[in-house]
Amino acid sequence: SSTKLKPLKSPIPEGELSVIEKSKQLAAWTAVDEHVLPEYRVIGIGSGSTVPYVVERIVNQGAEANRDRVFIPTGFQSKELIVSSGLSLGDVDQYPTIDVTLDGADEVDTQLNCIKGGGACHLREKVLAEAATTFILVADYRKNVEYLGTNFKAGVPIEVVPFAYAKVLQNLHQVLDSPKATLRMAVAKAGPVVSDNGNFIIDAPFDVERMKEPYTIMAQIKMLTGVVEVGLFCHMARAAYFGNQDGSITVKW
Ligand code: 5RP
C-alpha cells in the first residue's frame, strides 16, 4: 500500500538545500518521528547521504531522550556520524536485537523490496535490518519505483571475497546472464573498492523484467561460492518514506 501525507513545512529555510536534499530530510525526519519511539533503547543507523538527517532528527529529540539509548552503526560512516553527534555507540555483538533500524535505499519497489549497497555497506546493513524488530527505509523521490532497476541502472551490488571475484564475475556473465557485471573501482580507477569487511564489490545489472522477481535473483546470486552478501533486501522493510519535490511525503508499507 502507499499513501501520500500532507505537505510539511521543510525544517530547512528556502534556498539553503537542494530539492533533493530537502526531500531526503523530510523523509528522514518523518520516519524518525513515527518510528523512533521514546521507549526504544537500541537503534540501528544505516549508511549513505540520507541517514545523516535521521541522526539529525534523533539528536533533536534531546539529550534526555537519548541518554539511555545505544546506536549501532552499519559501517565506518555511520560510526563516525554517531560519535560526532554525541550519541552512544554500541555493537551488534552486544545488542543482537535492535528496536528499530533506519536506513537509505538505492531503489524501492511496490512490495518494499529494495536495492542497497550503493555505498558498499549492504552486508552490515542487512545484518542490522534482520536484527531489527522494525526496519524502515528513507529516501528521496527518485528511489520510489514500481519495479527495481527502473532508475537505478548500476546494478545489484554484490559483496565478494577478493579471492573469488573473477570466478563470480564469470558466473554472473555466463550463468546468470548479467553480461555487464563489473568489479566496482575506486575513484580514478586506483583499484577495487574495498568494503568495511575487506571484500570487493561487483555491480550486476539485470533487466527490469527479471527484477520483477528480486528474490529469485537474490537467491541465485547468493548460491555462488565467494559471494558474501547481495544488495537485494526482499520483504524486510516495514515501511519506506520518500520525500517528494513538492514537500510532501509518500509512505509505502
Ligand atoms: C549504502 C546504501 C545506502 O543506504 C544507499 O546507497 C542509499 O544512499 P543515499 O541515501 O545516499 O541515496 O545502501 O550501502
Fold and architecture overview:
The chain contains eight helices and 14 strands. The protein has helices at 19-35, 51-60, 63-66, 76-84, 122-131, 165-174, 208-211, 214-222; strands spanning 2-4, 42-45, 70-73, 98-103, 107-108, 114-115, 132-140, 156-160, 182-183, 200-204, 227-230, 232-233, 239-243, 249-252. The strands form three sheets. It has a seven-stranded mixed beta sheet, with helices on both faces. β5 and β6 form a beta hairpin. The mean pLDDT is 94. Bound molecules: ribulose-5-phosphate. Keywords: Isomerase. Belongs to the ribose 5-phosphate isomerase family. Its EC number is 5.3.1.6.
Strand proportion, as a percent range, falls in 15-25%
State the end-to-end distance.
Answer: 5 Å
Structural class based on helices, strands and sheet pairing: alpha/beta
Report the helical percentage. 25-40%
Strand order of the largest sheet: 1-14-13-7-4-2-3
Report the average pLDDT across residues. Answer: 94
Total strands: the figure is 14
Number of helices: 8
Molecular shape: globular
Largest sheet: 7 strands, mixed
Uncertain stretches of 5 or more adjacent residues: none
Q: Name the helix and strand elements from N-terminus to C-terminus, one letter apiece.
A: EHEHHEHEEEHEEHEEHHEEEE
Cofactors, ions, other ligands: ribulose-5-phosphate
Rg over C-alpha atoms, rounded to the nearest angstrom = 18 Å
What would a concise description of this structure say?
This protein has helices spanning 19-35, 51-60, 63-66, 76-84, 122-131, 165-174, 208-211, 214-222; strands spanning 2-4, 42-45, 70-73, 98-103, 107-108, 114-115, 132-140, 156-160, 182-183, 200-204, 227-230, 232-233, 239-243, 249-252. With 253 residues, the protein is α/β, with parallel strands linked by helices.
